[in-house]
Amino acid sequence: MKKMIGFIIGLTAILTVAFFTSSNEIETMKKAKPMVGILQLTSHPALDLIYQGTVDALNDAGYIDGETMTLDFQNAQGDQSNLNSMSTRFVSRGAAVMVGIATPSAQALANSSQEIPIVLGAVTDPEGSGLVESNEAPGGNITGVSDLTPIKEQFSLIKEILPEAQTIGILYSSSEDNSIVQADQAIEIAKEMGLDIEVMTISSTNDVSQVGATLASQVDAIWVPTDNTVASAMTTLVSAADSNGIPIFPAVDTMVEEGGLATVGLDQYELGRLTGEMVAAILNGESDPATTPIRYLDEGEIIINQEKAKQLGITIPTQLLEQAKQAE
Amino acid sequence: MDLIVTATAQGLLWGMMALGIFITYRILDLPDMTAEGSFPLGAAVCAQLIISGVHPLTATAIAFVIGALAGAVTGFLITKAHIPGLLAGILTMTGLYSINLRVMSRANLSLLGEAKLTDFFTRFNLPSQFDTIFMGIVLVSSLIVLLVLFFKTELGQAVIATGDNEKMARSLGISTNQTKILGLMLSNGLISAAGALIAQDNGYADISMGIGTIVIGLASVIIGEVIFGNLSFVNRLICVILGAIIYRLIIMFVLLMGLQPNDLKLISAVILAVFLALPSIRTRFNLNFFQKKELL
């Protein structure tokens, strides 16, 4: 009882002091070395590469951790209750720019500050997520890079490699907004191309094996959007599809390396570099988020996993092989 | 200083969730997994309503009612279908995933720029986070008063008796099935309303936001008990809230120490394990630097 009252009195005292002193603390905390806070939702190859690209681009622009800037990297490991604390950490440490990798982390940052510039690391549809007023003129303190993939080119690639394919399966996780946006677009595109579509969703990585196998038994090829959950369980999906001899065309290059057949992919590392460049421009005072449009990677590159092609007995047209990058 | 303020603000909101967990875990003696579904349910319902123009207060209240219904489903599965408590909660939680997707009609609903419950306090031009703190204090103290009043009524006492000793309660003519369902409804209503508040505070509702919430709730209950010891009923409820604040402070401290972010989950688990083990370590070695305590 005594301890409890003591704690409450102590906390109230601290809060009272904070109440009367905290008004403009952020302004006074601006330092000689600008701080960049990077908030990542979870760890998987694609997001990790974006992070890596961001840091490398910052280094190339002369911003080096510990020398010309302070880098604060936080990863919520999928636990969204931590995103808020981590965002406040950045704000209270006087971050000059904050970077949100994946939509929920970007939203948490957006909610923690309306002043500090925020750069989106990989958000498929910033406008649809309510982060910016419009993708062309964001209007607020947020701008960044979209990872919207060239879905149309990906479906043309499927046609080119597998002219016989008629039914394409789409597998994505129902817990991700970005995937739903892409799947809807893919269905439209497939309709235009006269393909049949079979859509299945998973709710966690545990569903991948079974749902993947069921889907693989019903289709000629599987297309997967940029999806954090599927990306985390790509190898599981690959083995489920392999046992049915079905190729996977993922939207992301890292997923081809993990056993997908081919894609016209966005280089995740390049997405990260683009993010880093935008951060550097803001740090240099060269750009203002409100008037900087959301950027996209200009063109995807064809990436083919030849080992997988051999394994599945699929011959890749030679002219395609010449312009493609090989996956390791 | 700022971080303590944030931790307090967050702790007050999560404290409401912890009160819900306290009702099932401590009073009813029933580990209820429904929480991980009813938490995002409240967020989803509230976000969808706010976006369609409903007042945030009404939206939060409706989230409470809908959450209570989810609790009723678990209660029904336990009492009428005789499904073990843990499993019944997991079933409801699993089912709620699809329902939450239906409610939001997508996986993530943004509340940026929408009306929020804290807007009421914003007009006073308070320093950052203090709108949440004042709202939290008002909500949490009125909740504690309401809960204390409720648990003093005959019905409330019947709920407590059911948790203490179900057989005896039944022999006293208490319909334990009804009291269990009632307790679960109250608990999940609170958890769902907490989800609604946290969605407003975070600026979005997300289908995955329930993951790990039960650990946060349990940690708050246990940290409060271990640090503050054996107390009267009112004070125990206050301790749950303080426990939630302390949990947030610990997480904040861990983040500040600049540990590898990848280790965060392990660290939270270790913290919880230490607090869970403290009472038995104390008895074992007869340490009394903490007050002696007895759990319900």
From TrEMBL, chain A:
Coiled-coil regions, chain positions: none
One Pfam family of this chain: ABC_sub_bind
Protein name: Putative ABC transport system substrate-binding protein
Species classification: Bacteria, Bacillati, Bacillota, Bacilli, Lactobacillales
TrEMBL record, chain B:
Keyword Transmembrane helix appears in the UniProt entry: yes
Subcellular location: Cell membrane
Record field: transmembrane: 12-28, 57-78, 85-103, 133-151, 181-199, 211-231, 238-260, 266-285
Pfam families: BPD_transp_2 (PF02653)
Membrane topology type: Multi-pass membrane protein
Gene Ontology terms, MF aspect: transmembrane transporter activity
Gene Ontology cellular component list: plasma membrane
Highest taxon of the lineage: Bacteria
The protein's name in its UniProt record: Putative ABC transport system permease protein
Naturally occurring in which organism (per UniProt): Carnobacterium alterfunditum
Organismal lineage: Bacteria, Bacillati, Bacillota, Bacilli, Lactobacillales
